[in-house]
Specification:
Elements (H helix, E strand, L loop, with lengths): L1 H8 L24 E4 L2 E8 L4 E9 L5 E10 L4 E3 L5 E3 L4 E8 L5 E10 L6 E11 L3 E4 L2 E3 L6 E9 L5 E10 L3 E3 L7 E3 L4 E8 L6 E10 L6 E8 L4 E7 L6 E7 L6 H9 L1 H9 L5 E6 L11 E2 L5 H10 L12 H10 L16 E7 L10 H9 L8 E7 L14 H8 L3 E3 L5 H15 L2 E3 L10 E4 L2 E3 L3 E4 L4 E4 L8 E7 L4
Parallel strand pairs: 2-9, 11-18, 20-21, 20-23, 23-24, 24-25
Antiparallel strand pairs: 1-3, 3-7, 4-6, 4-8, 5-7, 8-9, 10-12, 12-16, 13-15, 13-17, 14-16, 17-18, 19-31, 21-22, 26-30, 27-28, 27-31, 29-30
Amino acid sequence: MRAVWMSALLVGAACSEYNVQPRVDPADGVAPDIVVAPEALTFGPLPAGQSATEVFRVRNVGEGVLDVEGMELTVGAGAFSLGSTAGFVLEPDEEREVEVSFLPVGEVTLGQVTVFSDDPDTPEATVDLEGLGEVPALQITPDSYQFPGVCDDEVVLELRNVGLSDLQITAIDYQASPDLALLTTLPLPLVLAPDDFRDLTVAFTAQGSTTALGTLTVTSNDPRGDRTADQQVEGAGDLVTESYTVLADPPVDILFAIDKSCSMIDDARALGQAFDQFISEIDNVTDDWQIGVATKDGGCFNNGILTAQTPDYEGEFLDATSGGVFTAGSLTEALLELTDNALLKTVPGSCNDGFVRGNALLHVIAVSDEPEQSGQPWDYWVGRWQARMSDPNLVMVSGVIVDPNGGNCGEPGDGYIQAVQGTGGVMLDVCNSNWGSYAQQLGAASASSLLTYLLSTVPDEATIEVSVDGTTYANGWHYDPVRNAVVIDVELPEGSEVTIEYVSIGC
């Protein structure tokens, strides 16, 4: 500023009308002292389009010359403006007026002017501004929103007129990633009286992406112009660590429900004869198994509950699957209802007392060459069984049934097929039975489930990391999305600590 002032001084008399005087350095202890008055200005209320101007004064009440270096509108630039931001010099007891104008852009607008000077005590003096407008003002709530997870979700956006005159909305535009969509439409033009509002709903539909961004833009007669609101999804989720100990003898409860119609006599006998291959797969992992065979309408197991301690359990299983094949009951082709009857009899004092242990895998194996005919959808029955378990994913259904893709010995096993697919079980074709192989596969399915670790929440599959006793396993496991579980595909020593770490997607 001094350089400008010295240049102006050379002009001579032409500068005298601005009261510019040569500056004299103050003596020791002599200093300027700035005072601005008033310290606050209020404008309006004013209707849209009308402006008003007020002034404040800058005065030097000190004994030294005050160099006002300039002024700046530090808050409220959209509604307020300064007549000049140029600096000036004030002698002791001299003052200068500064103009401030206001054009309403909302009901209430706050601002602030900062005056910069060489006052040693107050180098930055401020004047607070308040402008009142009788104008419409659109408020979108929330104006920014981050979806808390990456699962299907919705947020409601409120469009409210917080001004003092009618708000007319003329356009609503939504630009977003494919996973985000504006579900609500409003008739346009739309007029909102003061404090009136409308709601819009934005939905996030997870399609495998963990990031998404959307922007709502609303055009109206709000003097501030278009108003916007942003929504985003950012792979949100907690880092989850779960640990499991490989048990010496993990428990498993296996229920065979067998169709006793005449067409099944040979298959039932073949299954019984292949039992040694079935049980050898399970014995490789655990001795804590229980097996029940249900063929009678009442649900009581043929030959009771078989365990590793049952004398000649292979012979007992053969007899349970083959005996009395021609005495079919009304549920012989309704094996899900038959299974339900058997599970109802597992309570204390009933014929199958102790079979369901709640924390053990319950593997139901249906064997039939007809569709399921229980009269209720498959998930009705499976849901009843899951309610008995500590975790619903402990229920698995497998089926040796008519394969709809090539079986020709009966009707496709509708009902059983869906139950198998819905619980992550094994589906085998009864029409092309190789019972030795089938028994081995069913046993392997039971055994592998004993090294299946159910996760507490749904993971972002790409983030799953598995380690055993501190060693990371890049292979030797897979994720089963149906049962929301990590399945270990290799043998692990008893007592090993399996740690699974992943980012939860919050579903």
